[in-house]
Amino acid sequence: xxxLMLLAFILTACTGMKEQEVNAQKIKIxxxxxxxxxxxFKVLEGKRVGLITNPTGVDNDLVxxxxxxxxxxxxxxxxxxxxxxxxxxxxHAGDAVGDDKDPVTGLPVYSLYGKTRKATPExxxxxxxxxxxxxxxxxxxxxxxxxxxxAMEAAAENGKEFVVLDRPNPLxxxxxxxxxxxxxxxSFVSQFKIPYxxxxxxxxxxxxxxxxxxxxxxxxxxxxxxxxxxxxxxMDYEKTGLQWIPSxxxxxxxxxxxxxxxxxxxxxFGYVSIGVGYTxxxxxxxxxxxxxxxxxxxxxxxxxxxxxxxxIYAKPFYSVFSGQQIEGVQVHITDMxxxxxxxxxxxxxxxxxxxYPDYKFFExxxxxxxxxxxxxxxxxxxxxxxxxxxxxxxxxxxWNKDVESFRTKSxxxxxxx
Length: 417
Prior knowledge:
The protein has 15 helices and 10 strands. By secondary structure, it is an alpha/beta fold. α6 (202-211) links the parallel β6 (161-165) and β7. The model is unreliable at 1-24 (pLDDT under 50).
């Protein structure tokens, strides 16, 4: 009897634990596509629809927007538009995306990451409204927001409506870092004059771009944002309860977006491994000439809030230092709210230059990558000043100079508290 009672107690306890786990994993918000469904697609009714999306454009049950809109009886989906990586995610980072036919729906797929990155009048002639639904990572250099902005521009120029199905900013709606892009650094990885980490959802950013004349010649599109329900500005992606769909092959997990701005700027040089080609993309810095314990001690001595650096030993499977034994540090973010993200790029370069003076970045790295570094940073001043002494203190004030003014200006376009 005692054994039976004990077994019953264990089963009850386990059941309770499982229920707690399930409750903890419940989705806490409704994304734009979920809200659109609940509104029976009213904003699209009676219109020919073109959809700009990729594998991240799914509802809360992970069903693709493509299949949802194609099946909706009152939606006339007529065309698809593929950003970097393609509509179904079948293109590698940086690879051109070609025009194609969607294998599931048979709809034409027009590339926005190939011969042209802006939809042409010919590509838009059969649509009345463009719908955008892509999960971004909250950083200026991630190309999806550039695709969104150029599509808004094309919509304005061709008399088409533009609808954004909003999604969370995975870095929260509060974190802002980096200077505004300067005129000579406008590019597809810094398309607009916004900070590197801009603290807005795609719907908020689209409104900011539209209302501040940031589209070519100051044009404005007829913009509608289908807002989320339940999202708060202090939510990072993990707090939403949503499943993460890789927004890029090297952004595989919900917290991967936290690390992209930590090392992605340094990664433009291909001079050290940042974990791309290993199992922890964007989460490490490593090279054959680094001593793991030495660098970890130096980075931890900086006492950055919310960050710990752990010695790591690795042999990348591909990309930088493929097949070579390297040492370095893994970056562990322990407090997303407090952790500075982009400064870690420069602090690593600073400490590496101090510890290993024969391997200073701007003396040894490929000068052919200087332009890419500049446009990702949004300013040539960053490289020109930092490279003199490899000191973060020399550029810190410049990097942060636009943060508070942008925060104040962008608050006008907040859709969420």
